[in-house]
Amino acid sequence: MPPSARPLLAAAAVLCFWLLVAVAEAKVHHYEWDISYQLKSPDCFEKLAVTVNGEAPGPTIRATQGDTIVVAVHNKLETENTAIHWHGIRQIDTPWADGVAGVTQCPILPGETFTYKFVVDRPGTYLYHAHYGMQRVAGLNGMIVVTVPEGFVEPFSYDEEHTVLLGDWWHKSVYEQATGLSSNPFVFVTEPQSLLINGRGMFNCSLAPSGTCNASRPDCALPTLFTAVPGKTYLLRIGSLTSLSSLYFEMEGHPMMVVEADGHYVRPFAVRGLFIYSGETYSVLVKADQDPRRNYWAASHVVGRNPSQTPSGKAVVSYAFNGNNPWMPPPTEPRAGPAWNNTAIRVEQSRAIFAHPRFVEPMPARADRTLLLLNTQNRIDGHIKWTINGVSLMFPATPYLVAMKRGMKDAYEQRPPPDMYDHMSHDISAPAPTNGTVGSPVYRLALGSVVDVVLQNSNALNNKTETHPWHLHGHDFWVLGHGEGKFNPAADAWRLLNVRDPIMKNTVPLHPDGWTAVRFRADNPGVWLFHCHVEAHVFMGMGVVFEEGVERVGRLPSSIMGCGRSKGLH
């Protein structure tokens, strides 16, 4: 045996061992969830929110690698459909449980029950949220924590762990927002009124109509992030499910060591604050080493958009120490966030994330297919849409998975979408020169093939460029790199890519005036959405659909059918 093969065999042996341990000790976790509208005031302003068993955010799901999750979802919204996506869970052998209405299932009708059943195959920090229309904006979301099997030693240690779910919040209803986006003239959702930390925020009630806001409500009190014991080390599992905002999260006087991203261990690196985009998760280590006689601010700030209309989200890190009042606000003023339009420091963090040396997932040396995807904002039939290579995605009435598995070729667009755009002549600093089209095409990928995707940003119709966090369902991808300007595949752009120790993620930011390159293996039979995780943007068509090996998918449950051409099959 050549010496070079021994480390690979050892790594394979360790992997096989832990897979066997996970299978041998796997448990089944059952949940019963009532999805309903409830009056809530997470930021002191009372409005309807979509809740899980009366709560928003919903409960944190906790399991061990290899466990099975079973969630019976009872739709009690009365007049509204729903569906729930398990964000970051790859759904190996269960593509119908991905929870995307129009892609993997028909929506869950009012009064009906749908049961999701899937295996959590990888440890890490994940999310769940509504994936029907713009319902995520209304509060149906939560976190999933998957721990390693007993006996496995992670590449870091800590005393306790806590979850931190970041969000943004509007006082307008989802219906008002969706109607504005679909209207002519176009009405944007505006900036959020509040930022939430673990579902809590504080709106200035003097700005609200009389009787709608009450700062004395118990559910809008200044929240405690966690209580620290001096000298202990804490693992914070941080996730963002904002609908629009990119964020900077920090804790006064407490730097963070980043150790995990989207379920993959990273080469540890220290940050004073963490830039985090919608759909991303990070685990960070925090040492409780500050003066324990006082408390400290935790805060989230909007970046990438002008935050003048959205005050920072605030919470308190309190110290458990004799003589310290854990309910006392910190004696200092909360810090202001970094300059909201400083893209360079955000790109710097993106480029600082590498796979942990002991957990580098071997990446294929080259791709079988390359997709160069340009996002543009277009005016189509008088309506403003987002397009990818000129196509604005609209889900068909029959879910892609059902239509493709059952050979319903007239249920979705048969013409394939373009792999490339005219990168030689297109000016990314100018709005799109063409109107584009609305459609439901599919990128059909050879099962097992390796695919490179280069996401290219460009100016919107207002001649500004934005941050777009892109999320891939059913897979993790290697992040090859981030660049400024226009990616030129024929020039030196490939030299900028990291092929040695790239981190694997399921969500990655596409920064303003730049490009992001990723690589993934199309090895999970099914139909999978790849889209911008800004809720208004995907609603306006910023996404694509991948199909791979759908003929290898097992028998589809009849419970995912019943809409479009699958009526009568439910």
TrEMBL record:
GO terms for molecular function: copper ion binding; L-ascorbate oxidase activity. Its cofactor is Cu cation. It is found in: Secreted. The keyword Cell cycle does not apply. Belongs to the multicopper oxidase family. NCBIfam families: ascorbase. This is L-ascorbate oxidase. It comes from Aegilops tauschii subsp. strangulata (Goatgrass). The lineage of its organism: Eukaryota, Viridiplantae, Streptophyta, Embryophyta, Tracheophyta.
